[in-house]
Automatic annotation (TrEMBL):
It catalyses: a lipid A disaccharide + ATP = a lipid IVA + ADP + H(+). This is Tetraacyldisaccharide 4'-kinase. PANTHER family: TETRAACYLDISACCHARIDE 4'-KINASE, TETRAACYLDISACCHARIDE 4'-KINASE, MITOCHONDRIAL-RELATED. Its EC number is 2.7.1.130. InterPro entries: LpxK, P-loop_NTPase. HAMAP family: LpxK. GO terms for molecular function: ATP binding; lipid-A 4'-kinase activity. Keywords: ATP-binding, Kinase, Lipid A biosynthesis, Lipid biosynthesis, Lipid metabolism, Nucleotide-binding, Transferase. The gene is lpxK. The keyword Nucleotide-binding applies. It comes from the Bacteria.
Length: 332
């Protein structure tokens, strides 16, 4: 089955490579952030890092994406450049998180090219960042940023046998390759990229914020009473990474509740969280930024029981070469 899948991918890519399937060009530069695999490799924090990089250079970026597991269909404007104008259910958790965290235009659509064209023509932006855009070749991009983790290199099998959507040879299309593990080096991808492609590491760092009406940030010591154990809740593609982050922060976990990726939390789930906290004798629940935007719907129930949420996010930090590599490709 993987051989058949690989042949289909190769045929599709060949059509774009030789121009038989043309890509749509936007009126503003387009930067894609993507990967070769299914599952989480850290695209969301990298998207946010690049948006902030662009803002430092005076650009007005917009984010476009599919809006996976949202309850809506078609094109939805999540943030219009002034405020959030869609619910988390209509937007999807990742898109809503970008809108709330970045305060920039965000558009979701199954066809990312439609989202990009709409953002470029109708919203206040002069550059577009596509979240998970590497396989969406119908949209022309000026910069292709591709994230590579250890599993991509060491387990390079295609779907359905493995987790790769494209083979490693597709890295030849990349403008920039970001290594998401300190153990990976340029030689791990050197045979797939040209010498002029920037290959650099991204430093991933955890951040914490208390989910209150004003969402305050601070240190773990300030937010968790000394000696208190917590309940950990997540519904993401890579819960192992979240567990490792929590352990890295030195948080003592009493109970772990894990759901499927992009889980749509219900009132019953909220009550399960409350019961788990009560059984553990804690008032603190740890979750991810993506889960927090959905669990926030039940804040009244949590507040009534005296339970507060601590959101653990991830920020990406790069060295100056990434800044230079992006700017030289989008500045006329």
């Amino acid at each position: 089955m993987s051989a058949i899948y690989g042949a289909i991918v190769a045929h599709r890519n060949a059509r774009y490579d030789d121009g038989r399937s043309p890509a749509v060009r936007c009126t503003v530069p387009v930067i894609s952030v993507g990967n070769l695999s299914v599952g989480g490799t850290g695209k969301s924090p990298v998207v946010q890092m690049i948006v902030r990089l662009l803002q430092r250079h005076g650009y007005r970026p917009a984010v476009v994406m599919r809006g996976y597991r949202r309850r809506s269909k078609g094109l939805v404007v999540v943030h219009d450049g002034a405020s959030i104008v869609a619910t988390v259910a209509a937007a999807g958790d990742e898109a809503f998180m970008h809108a709330r965290t970045l305060d920039v235009p965000v558009v979701v659509c199954e066809y990312k090219v439609d989202a990009a064209v709409h953002a470029a023509g109708m919203l206040p932006c002069d550059v577009i960042v596509v979240d998970d855009g590497f396989q969406h070749r119908a949209l022309y991009r000026d910069v292709d940023v591709v994230l590579i983790d250890e599993r991509t290199i060491h387990q390079p099998q295609l779907l359905p046998q493995g987790r790769l959507r494209e083979p490693l040879t597709s890295l030849r299309r990349a403008s920039i390759v970001l290594l998401m593990s300190p153990t990976l080096m340029r030689h791990d991808v050197a045979s797939y990229v040209s010498d002029d492609v920037l290959v650099t590491h991204v430093v991933i760092e955890p951040t914490t914020s208390l989910l209150t009406e004003g969402s305050t940030s601070g240190s773990i010591a300030d937010m968790i009473p000394r000696g208190e154990r917590v309940v950990m809740v997540s519904g993401i593609a890579n819960p192992e990474r979240f567990r490792a982050t929590v352990a890295q922060l030195g948080i003592d976990v009493a109970t772990i509740l894990e759901y499927g990726d992009h889980h749509d939390y219900t009132k019953r789930d909220a009550m399960s969280v409350i019961r788990a906290a009560q059984a553990a004798g804690t008032t603190t629940v740890i979750t991810t930024e993506k889960d927090a935007v959905k669990l926030d719907a039940y804040r009244t129930s949590f507040d009534t029981e005296g339970i507060h949420f601590l959101s653990i996010g991830i920020t990406a930090r790069s060295l100056d070469p990434l800044d230079d590599a992006i700017m030289e490709r989008i500045v006329p």
